[in-house]
Amino acid sequence: MPEDGRLGKPPSIAGPGDANVDDQTRRQLADLRDRLGPHTPVAVLTGAGVSSASGIPTFRGRDDSLWSQYRPEDLATPEAFARDPELVWRWYDWRRGLIAANRPNPAHAALARLGERMLLTVITQNVNGYHQQAGSRDVVEYHGSIWTTRCTRCHRRAEDRRVPLPIPPRCPDCGGLLRPGVVWFGEAIPPEASDAATAATIRCRVFLVIGTAGAVYPAAGLVGLARSHGAYVAEFNLERSAVTASADLFVEGNAADTVPLLLGA
Ligand code: BJW
Ligand code: ZN
């Protein structure tokens, strides 16, 4: 239960073998490792916190970027884009530059290694592509990808990895305004992603929740769905979140330190 599962002081940044994790945390992680057999279906829900050790700011955390004055609700909406597409594109262009200049961290790498050993689906709310870059194969991009665009006129979808972009970018086919291939507030989750995430969540026996505030739906609802289908839920976060009450185990700390401990010695 979460109260018992709340674990000691946060580990400091260190290699997986020597992270500063207390004995109770190590025992609970060993117990969690025992649940991760080669035939156990596992689903992992990741949020912005899994990428913060890569130098990518979270949405609701504090940072000193020029964008910290905006809330995601002010920029990640179709209304914001209709009002000021250049502003929204400048934000996305800045984020694309940061993502391209940085790389996946040990948490992404550990999930990719686990995926080689067991049936593991990563459901990520992140749009940066770091799970695939780290080697994860079964990745559901629940909120889309920052590396794709969609034409607002002819609806053409395309991969686009230019950094920086001409702002605003235009469709090579029809000259229409392009938009980022991501899911904004008030927009539906793409049906293939929604279906794949729901199926993996219902099927899994162990559900890992890593670095998400659990504040945005329907993604946050997957935690309760997993639990209601009998999965053991383990959360990895720097601090308690809106979904901690639904977790069987809470592992406090930097995901880049704690998640690699799932690999064992
Ligand atoms: C660490 C760490 C470290 C830091 N180690 N941990 C039910 C109830 C209430 C509202 C709704 C509801 N259902 C739907 C809604 C409305 C809305 C919503 O949820 N609003 C809430 C704000 C209340 N949802 C929607 O609109 C969704 N669409 C929808 O419901 O459609 C319905 C529909 C159906 C049919 C037709 C039409 C419509 C869409 C939501 C889209 C969200 N989009 C964004 C932007 C994506 C593109 C982009 O990246 O720009 O997704 S917003 C932003 O939030 C982004 C993220 O994926 C998402 C979640 O954020 P996340 O990952 O949790 O990040 P943070 O920053 O909040 O938290 C970081 C966490 O990490 C913290 O806990 C830290 O402690 C931790 N951390 N460092 C471990 N090192
Ligand atoms: Zn077009």
**Helix and strand element order:** HHEHHHHEHEEEEHEHEEH
Strand-residue fraction? 15-25%
The number of helical runs is 10
CATH hierarchy: architecture of the largest domain: 3-Layer(aba) Sandwich
Number of domains: 2
User: Shape from CA axes?
Assistant: globular
**CATH-assigned homologous superfamily of the largest domain:** TPP-binding domain
State the CATH class of the largest domain.
Answer: Alpha Beta
Spatial order of the strands forming the largest sheet = 3-2-1-7-8-9
Low-confidence stretches: 1-18
Tell me the radius of gyration.
19 Å
- What percent of the residues sit in helical stretches (DSSP H or I)? 25-40%
* Strand tally: 9
Largest sheet: 6 strands, parallel
Mean pLDDT: 91
N-to-C span? 26 Å
- List bound small molecules: ligand BJW, zinc ion
Short description:
With 265 residues, the chain is α/β, with parallel strands linked by helices. It is 32% helix and 17% strand.
Q: Please, could you describe this protein's structure?
A:
- It is a single chain.
- Helices cover 32% and strands 17% of the residues.
- A hairpin with a 5-residue loop joins β4 (144-151) and β5.
- The protein has 265 residues and is of the alpha/beta class.
- It has helices spanning 2-5, 23-35, 72-75, 78-83, 85-101, 106-117, 130-134, 191-203, 221-228, 255-258, and strands at 42-46, 120-124, 139-141, 144-151, 157-159, 178-182, 206-210, 232-237, 249-252.
- The radius of gyration is 19 Å and the shape is globular.
- Residues 1-18 have low confidence and may be disordered.
- The structure holds ligand BJW and zinc ion.
